[in-house]
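example protein:
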Amino acid sequence: MALEIKQSLRLSQQLVMTPQLQQAIKLLQLSRMELSEVINQELVENPILEETAESAEGESTASREEGEAGAQDPEGEQRRDEEASMKEAPKEDQLVTGKEDDFNWESYVEEFNSSYSPAPSMKEVNEDLPSFENILTKTTSLEEHLMWQLSMATFSEQEKKFGQLIIGNLSDDGYIKADFAELAREAGMELEDAEETLKLIQNFDPVGVASRNLQECLMAQARFMRPRQPLVEKIIETHLGELERKNYHAIARAEDTPLEKVIIATKLILELEPKPGRSFHANDTHYITPDIYVYKVGGEFVIVLNEDGMPKLRISPYYKNILSSAKKDGNKMTKEYVQEKLRSAVWLIRSIHNRQKTIYKVTEAIVKRQRDFFEKGVQHLRPMILKDVASDIGMHESTISRVTTNKYVHTPVGIFELKYFFNSSIGAADGGDSLASEAVKEKIRQLISKEDPKNPLSDQRLAELLKTDNIDIARRTVAKYREMLGMLSSGKRKKVL
């Protein structure tokens, strides 16, 4: 067969991820705080962009329209920029005197002097602000606290080295997460000597730290009880499994001790700390600022985007004048630089506007489908998937997924992440309308909260009670949802004390 070279035409479709498209996709999945950081960074890097006052509605609207039109027709945007720059060019007397109509320097100086007075002033207490404990720049960590005690102890250099290895290999809960024998070899210590040093470290504050398991942790704390409690130490050493199952009668029979004494000893054990490092966890309060507000006004739900504190962007008129001058003077480098920054600024403004519009449309579709939830609460949440909202607003499922990531909505029944509304369905026992999995979890939580502590509900009993509420669910599914709620099994929830 002869080979030949020939030309042919072929049509094909291909998706090209342009930098502008990548930027739009990135902005969609950013949280409100992350978006604000990106905008502030662009304000620093791109001189074409400037922040406009929020009260200037005409300018904000103009900049949005300018961004939309410019993104669709960059050449047309440049022509409009030239026309606008001629209109916005400063007058000759303004250039000579250096005055601007929209800025009063005298009032600015007066305000600056009054607000930055060297005299001390009393700040008004604002109850909405976080407490001082939540705004400290640094707190003492567990490792720092233990290292300080190690430096004050009368240990040899070898023992201190071993202690540093132990402290450096602790989990957040205060347990050793490395091989103990390996740490002893690395410090050059015999295993017996390392055991003695470890017991001394376990007596550091908090007592029981650097333990290898729960039994060792509780035993270290039990030895500090005054007076000593032999029954408490015996239960921890021998009957920890029965204690977990709350089988107090078996412990009493094994130790030949009255049940009353076993219960008293158990109460003392329950006062011990199973996680010694817990008090050193970072427990700063994290505040959530909703991206969207949903209000009920006159029987209808109103959606309001939260744009408080978000910088309002516009194209700087100063650089429009520079672009116009560069075209007249034939300065190619200046023209190319300003055009590149202008194109980037226009795309950013348009991407932000499209992001806000998409969030609004997604929230609107969620409100229409979940109206009962917004009126009555979690138990009336309906099953919904990404495909449902995507078909409602004519977008791809991946876009809906990005929009609902790290976005929070304030509703009449609380603050929820947008992804919260997307969940699987649980069938009704009579074949009627299905329920959302989150609504079923809420019913399980309520049933457990109302149970008798001395006779807790088993997973099978929970499944039977849910069936009486027209929810067809298997026992293993109840167990899965219970674990997701962070609730123990019925045997471990039982209280006999």
